[in-house]
Structures are given as C-alpha cells and as structure tokens.
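User: When convenient, might I ask for sequence and structure tokens for a protein?

AI:
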Amino acid sequence: MGKIDVLRKKIDKIDSTVLSLLNQRAKFALDIGLEKSKAGKDNFHVPHREQAIFSRLKKINTGPFPDKAILSVFREIFSATLSLEKPLSIAYLGPQSTFSHLAGIKGFGESARYYPQKCIEDVFKTVEKNSANYGIVPVENSIEGTINSTLDMLVQTDLKVTSEILLRVSHHLLSLSKDIKKIKKIYSHPQPVAQCNSWLRENLPGVKIQEVSSTARASQLAARHLTSAAIAGEAASRTYKLNILARGIEDRAHNVTRFLVIGHEISQKSWKDKTSLLFGVKDKPGTLFNVLNHFSRNKINMTRIESRPLKNKKWEYLFFVDIEGYYQDTRVKKAIKEIEKSCLFLKTIGSYPKGREA
C-alpha cells in the first residue's frame, strides 16, 4: 500500500469519527430543544450563542484549517441541527439566487426554508403575520449607500432587527450567448447598474440597459434571448443556466451590502453588539447636536446616522442611528434615557450581534 493510500485511510477514519460526533452533537441539541419546549420557549435561533461559538473556535484554532472555513462549516452544522428541532422559515427579497437569498444562506445555512417575496414591504408583512420566522432585507451598500424602502418600513413596523449579515457582492455579466459582442440589451436592478456604471460605459457603450426588480429577475429575462444579458451574481448563472461573459465588473472591488434580519424579539447580549435607534427631534437650531452629544458624553461610538423626511410633514426628518454596545449596557441605557428627553419620540429598532466582515 502506497503512502497516499495510508493517508486516505487515516482521513476516512477521521471522517467516521467526525460524523459520529456530529450525531452526538445533534442529540444534545435536540435535548436542549425539548427543555426549551417544556419551559414554553420557542427561541430556537439564538444569534448571540452562535457568535460565542464562532469566537471560541476561532480563538482555539491552531490551523492549518482556515478560520473562515470554520465559520462556513459550523454555520451548516447549526442550520442542520436547527432543522431537526424546528425548521426555520426565512422570507427574503426574491426570486431565488438574489443577493438577499445568498445573505440568508450565509446567516441561516442551507437547511432553513426560504420564501421569496416580491418586494421589501412583503418581507416585513410576511414576518408580521408570522408566516415566516425571520425576514432578510438589504439596508445599505458600501458604494451606493442606503436602501430607503427598508428604512421606511422600519418606521412603520413593530418588528425588531435581530442580527445583521455583511455580504461581499461581486457582479458578473451573464447571458445565454458566449459572445459579448452580440449583447444588445442588459437587465439588472438599479443598484448593480450604478455599481458597474464605468465598466458598462467602457465595454458596452450604447447597449440598452433596462432596470428591473432584482438581479434574479434580470437573469430570468436574460435567459429568454441570445442577445440579452444580466448583471447578477454567480449563483444566478447556475440557477438560470447562463454563461459568465465577464467577471467582477463592479467599479470598486470592495463592494459589501449590509442586510438586516428582522424578527419579533430583540436578541440577547453577545460578545460584541450594536444598537439601532430611530428618533425624531423638534425643528429648532442645535436640537440634533444636543441629542448626538449625549453619545459623546457617555463615550459611545456612533457608527452611522441617516435621515429620512417625514412623509406627512414638510421639512421634518427622522434619524436612524447605529451605535456600538447593547441597549441594556449601563452607558447605552443612560444615553438613551437622556436622549429621549430631547426627542419627539424614540424607538429602539434592535440590539444585536455585530456582523462579521464579508
């Protein structure tokens, strides 16, 4: 027997051990689920617990197995185990193979059940009606900025942000054709079109661009004609059987979209949290400055602020703020209490584990 065969037999033995341990882990997880049911708890998905496991494993990993792969492997272990306890249902901005769908798989794994929705509003409504456990919506892109329809829905809903997912986004030009010179029309969502604008001007000047509801919808339309193409992700090329004519056509390489996971309850405290707030202030000079100054005085880092006009009142605005820390932390709790005195209203949208880099 050669050395390679000997090594393969050792790997086979390890694989058998790993499988046995996975089944042991699954049995313990089922026991935990049973205890939760006895106690009347239905929070089978616990982001803070998953983050703690990821952090612990990354800390003790001595290699050569890469840290990033640990996250991927254990994400699927969590997903498969959860499906034994209670399969999670996830609403997302569809159809299949959109970046929202990919974000869902990154956050919940392949074993969850995914239900595509036609628009962001429908994602919220599906979760509000308890037709899905969670929803996934895009909220901002590192190049194009905020998705306003998500902010508008966060104003209207009582749902909470339970976690966030950061997804590295790479756009490809997809088509039934294998010849880029034959392309006469391109379909895509407005955001990818904007993110690939320079590439399109340089490589396909004069080609008609039609904006549609999603990259997956663009791929569906491109799959109908040899002279059509779509700007979409690699997953869409597999789903709709399209050729990749050009890879990575986004104008800036580090293109990340932030997605929010929405549900009915605020997450428990984790190793590293952030809190999202929504508030309105009186239309007086210095009011906003005074509100934000409470964060500084309490030594709280504000990572994002966004304004949206009130739809029923001209020249009055709502403000969305992300800060570091959990909403029940002493300093954060104190700052929120102080800010509330200066606001017309204030709402904690969510307090949740900080997303890991894409």
Observations:
- The chain has a mean pLDDT of 89.
- The radius of gyration is 23 Å.
